[in-house]
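Q: For a teaching handout, I want to show students what a protein-ligand complex looks like in token form. Below are the inputs, and the small molecule is adenosine-5'-diphosphate. Please produce the holo structure.
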Amino acid sequence: MRTFETSNEDETIAAGVEIAKGLPRRCVVLLEGNLGAGKTTITKGFARALGADETEVSSPTFTLIHEYGPRLVHVDLYRLESEREYWTLGLEEYFDRDCVVLVEWASKFRQLLPKDAIEVRIEHRGGDGRRITVD
Ligand code: ADP
Ligand code: MG
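A: Here is the structure, written as tokens, with adenosine-5'-diphosphate included.
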């Protein structure tokens, strides 16, 4: 397990860059954290490290799947309500590509997602403090 302590948005982006640099070419990353924890912020770091345009990164809540260049896919399962809906997304196609698939709200469908997925958790530590753990 790796841990990062950050105290502002830029440090969380930098942590995202560090984490993304160490990832295998093909992997699934489950991104956990409450609203406002910094999930969208850390995704900008992933985009920077994986050659995508970080200014395109936004909360994917309305569009369930965003492709940020060929190496980063951002998925948000928040609005999905059933396993049947999960399967209609066709995530397997992304899992079979050489890219990092970042999944938000994965805990809703954890049993359907790859068992070897990497977990990144962001926790509030009071004020602007955040603790980021990678498992
Ligand atoms: P989420 O996607 O998890 O809802 P966002 O990344 O959209 O969260 O928002 C995080 C908010 O918290 C931003 O407004 C950001 O400026 C603020 N913030 C304050 N401190 C930090 C920090 N250490 N890391 C990340 N964001 C921080
Ligand atoms: Mg967000």
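A: Two things your students might notice: The chain has a mean pLDDT of 94. Residues 2-134 form a domain with the Rossmann fold fold (CATH 3.40.50.300).
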